């Protein structure tokens, strides 16, 4: 979804041995956010808009897998091959594979431009591992934005999504249609449905969200980091709502810090 002259996120998408084309410079506040919400709620769309406003990089674990899948010349490890198979079925990728990928890219978490994590963490184990890694790096999250939307609308956003095969821009057949049917407004590339947006993958994805990711809402609320945002309305309206919610953070900067308790395993699990 890199349609503007912005950082190409090469270090995140391809791994730490590759340099980003335009690493962000330190200007103003450095935002470190997690974007939470059901598959299809609009996290990627918001990450794209917010990255332009906050100058923080959009770091999506799903994008890492899609980048690996589209590089035919890239030798895929057995773990990556199995991760892509899980993804096609709409199942979560095992925590160990995800953690290997994130740890290998931990330089992106230290980046002075900040980050917008999209699709990670997705399980309690991933969330706890992230906190410990950030503690080691002496970093902290500003907030966890939780996008809220009725499930019927989530399903409609997922099933109507179309992606440009060339520049990866995101459209929706009714909510954000391209000007010419089936063709990207930005580069003229062909639009296609994501494999995991087909009906037989949507159901297991939503179930995985309910079982594994929804408990993170309670986890981050417990840490005093949760910032609920209504995800209905146009992408611009949702972005404006998010910025207002983030603006309120600076009015009350003393969020209760319970991270030490979490590292001692005191978060009440279900
Ligand atoms: P991932 O790529 O992270 O997918 P996801 O979380 O399922 O989220 P999506 O990308 O589907 O949706 P989104 O919320 O970004 O919505 P979008 O902005 O595109 O993960 C894919 C898979 O990878 C997982 O299923 C799993 O297998 C694996 N994986 C990744 N990370 C993992 C992890 N940490 N642990 C384990 N497994 C992991 O918007 C959706 C549609 O709605 C678009 O068409 C858009 O145009 C439209 N839209 C957006 N906003 C609006 C709006 N305001 N109004 C109208 N339409 C809108």
Short description:
Helix content is 45%, strand content 13%.
Question: Would you give an account of this structure?
Answer:
With 270 residues, the protein is α/β, with parallel strands linked by helices. It is 45% helix and 13% strand. A 5-stranded parallel sheet has the order 2-3-1-4-8, sandwiched between helices. It has a 3-stranded antiparallel sheet with strand order 6-5-7. The radius of gyration is 18 Å and the shape is globular. The chain starts with 9 loop residues before the first helix and ends in a 7-residue tail after the last helix. The chain binds BIS(adenosine)-5'-pentaphosphate (AP5).
List the helices and strands and how they pair.
Layout: H1 10-14, E1 31-36, H2 43-54, E2 57-60, H3 61-70, H4 78-89, H5 95-104, H6 106-110, E3 114-118, H7 124-136, E4 143-148, H8 151-159, E5 161-164, E6 170-172, E7 191-192, H9 199-213, H10 215-222, E8 226-230, H11 235-251, H12 259-263
Parallel strand pairs: 1-3, 1-4, 2-3, 4-8
Antiparallel strand pairs: 5-6, 5-7
Helix pairs in contact: 2-11, 3-4, 5-7
This protein binds BIS(adenosine)-5'-pentaphosphate (AP5).
């Amino acid at each position: 979804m890199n349609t503007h002259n912005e950082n190409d996120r090469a270090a995140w998408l391809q791994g730490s041995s590759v340099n980003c084309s335009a690493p962000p410079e330190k200007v103003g506040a450095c935002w470190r956010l997690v974007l939470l919400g059901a598959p299809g709620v609009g996290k990627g769309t918001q990450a794209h808009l917010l990255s332009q406003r906050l100058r923080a990089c959009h770091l999506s674990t799903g994008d890492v897998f899609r980048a690996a899948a589209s590089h035919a010349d890239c030798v895929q490890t057995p773990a990556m091959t199995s991760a892509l198979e899980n993804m096609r079925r709409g199942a979560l990728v095992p925590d160990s594979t995800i953690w290997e990928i994130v740890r290998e890219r931990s330089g992106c978490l230290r980046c002075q431009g900040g980050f917008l994590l999209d699709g990670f963490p997705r399980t309690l184990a991933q969330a706890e591992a992230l906190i410990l890694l950030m503690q080691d790096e002496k970093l902290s999250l500003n907030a966890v934005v939780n996008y809220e939307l009725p499930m019927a609308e989530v399903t409609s956003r997922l099933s109507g999504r179309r992606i440009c095969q060339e520049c990866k821009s995101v459209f929706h057949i009714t909510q954000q249609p391209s000007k010419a049917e089936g063709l990207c407004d930005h580069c003229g590339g062909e639009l296609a449905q994501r494999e995991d947006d087909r009906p037989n993958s949507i159901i297991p994805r939503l179930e995985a969200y309910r079982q594994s990711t929804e408990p993170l809402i309670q986890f981050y609320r417990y840490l005093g980091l949760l910032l609920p945002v209504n995800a209905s309305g146009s992408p611009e309206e949702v972005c404006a709502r998010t910025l207002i919610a983030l603006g309120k953070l600076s009015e009350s900067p003393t969020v209760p810090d319970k991270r030490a308790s979490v590292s001692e395993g005191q978060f009440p699990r279900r």
